[in-house]
């Protein structure tokens, strides 16, 4: 079910962005696509982020009647971000260091971004403006693409994509790799990503029954990232304090049966 | 004894927190948000408030003429007022000249962390007009706040 | 008097230094893009929840900002230990050189002063909220995408007794040449006095 939801969301997004491309292009719009792809390594204060996060939680809490509804909504926020990051980080990772400053491995996921683009174009109105716009876009993208010398196959194995989350995604989001990546010894479809000091929830009191639920945002990001990579799963947070790390949280990833079946095939 | 008591007043002239180390009627470690202190709080606020009004009148034009401390024969009152109108007040003996840094620390690292930045704590302790202008009764009861304040101030009690 | 003139420029230079120093040494930082994407997800949710009623969405973004502003001001004062400002000129400098710098790492340009110096504009370049954003065409005319910023400023200023109106007059996302936000002082609120003292 959540898988379907994701696909719906992205197609709606694709439509709306198409609609606006048929608008009279401004200088800003022309630059948007190319600019967005290059990582500029800009930073803002963590406070600003936590204030926004808290207000988002406040809004969701008001509009949810049960805790599980709240968790689902918060997780969906995260998903909508995670599924975009898979594309973005993989693309950037394949650009040469002179164009990007994020430390990643060289891999790219063009194959899964292609359907999105097609959908967008087929919904577009064929005004001369829109056509011109598309041509500009493709030439912009081509400019960037020219710099890519090596394209890596996308992650097909569970461990590969989890390593990508543990390393690249975590560094991108929180400036450090995750504190641990563990495989469950009891169930072979379960993996855990550990964060000793979760940053976004730092002002939510530990005593609050709410705290665990607030971690569903990051869970959603992990889930969206994995879903878009072709690894349907569910992700849930578990507070596991240890000495010195009172707020330590474990994100438990449970892959769907089909993922394990595929994993056992030989390529 | 280094410090005797600590008080927070909000912009509605309400005492939203008090911590007393000299009243030992309820426990050996003093009291928190004690009923006994209600009257003292009002008088203390009145005094600080009046002094501030006077200093502002005396120093027309300049805004930096804030009351920092008041001395009596037996103790000293240190005050720190934020631009948002929250007062932090500390009663001490004469051993140490300035407690400004202590009060600033309480504000930036304890009050802001556990009260202002905490979505689950109110940022304004007066719910409606009948709780303004010194008529409010709500107090800070946040456990994290009380614990970290204690951890920070307690070592200064016996100095 | 001539002395106070020169001290105003010194002060404004030192505000810049204060802001930069706090940003550099005393501020934990996070990726701007995570912030932009999170805000984007929130706005997208509002589009859905309010069925594309843009004026309601603008209002909602403003009120969310207000809720943030009334708390954020304490965080700001705790970092800077600044006293209240004596006039709007000083206020504008503090907002641009300290507040925007410390929270969003940008320094909007202050301009378009009214004759009586009670209102001014902030020209915001590289608005971190707008990263990745392209508005749907039917929303373009009416939506103030970054309206949360107006709410934050409104809430924060009110807490230091400045009753202001804050609104966007232009946004690059709508095809305007620049993003411009207006702040106008209505009145300075009086500090409360204890009952029986007046």
Automatic annotation (TrEMBL), chain A:
InterPro entries (alphabetical): NO_sig/Golgi_transp_ligand-bd, TRAPP-I_su5, TRAPP_component
Entry's Gene Ontology cellular component terms: endoplasmic reticulum; TRAPPI protein complex; TRAPPII protein complex; TRAPPIII protein complex
GO biological process, one term: endoplasmic reticulum to Golgi vesicle-mediated transport
Biased composition (Polar residues): 115-128
Disordered: region residues: 1-25, 115-144
Entry keyword set: Endoplasmic reticulum, ER-Golgi transport, Golgi apparatus, Transport
UniProt-annotated location(s): Endoplasmic reticulum; Golgi apparatus, cis-Golgi network
GO molecular function: guanyl-nucleotide exchange factor activity
CDD domains xrefs: TRAPPC5_Trs31
Subunit record text: Part of the multisubunit TRAPP (transport protein particle) complex.
Family designation: Belongs to the TRAPP small subunits family. BET3 subfamily.
UniProt function note: Plays a key role in the late stages of endoplasmic reticulum to Golgi traffic.
Official protein name in the record: Trafficking protein particle complex subunit
Source organism phylogeny: Eukaryota, Fungi, Dikarya, Ascomycota, Saccharomycotina
UniProtKB/TrEMBL annotation, chain B:
A cellular-component GO term for this protein: TRAPPII protein complex
Domain of life: Eukaryota
Localization terms from the record: Endoplasmic reticulum; Golgi apparatus, cis-Golgi network
Pfam families on file: Sybindin
GO biological process: endoplasmic reticulum to Golgi vesicle-mediated transport
InterPro entries membership: Longin-like_dom_sf (IPR011012), TRAPPC (IPR007233)
Keywords: Endoplasmic reticulum, ER-Golgi transport, Golgi apparatus, Transport
Main subcellular location of this protein, as a coarse class: endoplasmic reticulum
An annotated Gene Ontology molecular function: guanyl-nucleotide exchange factor activity
Keyword Transport: yes
Keyword flag Transport: yes
Similarity comment text for this entry: Belongs to the TRAPP small subunits family. BET5 subfamily.
PANTHER family in UniProt: TRAFFICKING PROTEIN PARTICLE COMPLEX SUBUNIT (PTHR23249), TRAFFICKING PROTEIN PARTICLE COMPLEX SUBUNIT 1 (PTHR23249:SF16)
Subunit-structure text: Part of the multisubunit transport protein particle (TRAPP) complex.
Stated name of the protein: Trafficking protein particle complex subunit
Name of the encoding gene: NCAS0A06200
TrEMBL record, chain C:
SUPFAM superfamilies: Ligand-binding domain in the NO signalling and Golgi transport
Similarity annotation: Belongs to the TRAPP small subunits family. BET3 subfamily.
The entry's keywords: Endoplasmic reticulum, ER-Golgi transport, Golgi apparatus, Transport
Entry GO terms, CC: cis-Golgi network membrane; endoplasmic reticulum; TRAPPI protein complex; TRAPPII protein complex; TRAPPIII protein complex
One matching Pfam family: TRAPP
Molecular function via GO: guanyl-nucleotide exchange factor activity
Subcellular location: Endoplasmic reticulum; Golgi apparatus, cis-Golgi network
Record's keyword annotation contains Transport: yes
Protein origin, superkingdom: Eukaryota
Name of the gene encoding the protein in the UniProt record: NCAS0C05400
GO terms of biological process kind: cellular response to nitrogen starvation; cytoplasm to vacuole targeting by the Cvt pathway; endoplasmic reticulum to Golgi vesicle-mediated transport; intra-Golgi vesicle-mediated transport; macroautophagy
Lineage: Eukaryota, Fungi, Dikarya, Ascomycota, Saccharomycotina
Protein name, UniProt field: Trafficking protein particle complex subunit BET3
Matches recorded under InterPro entries: Bet3, NO_sig/Golgi_transp_ligand-bd, TRAPP_component
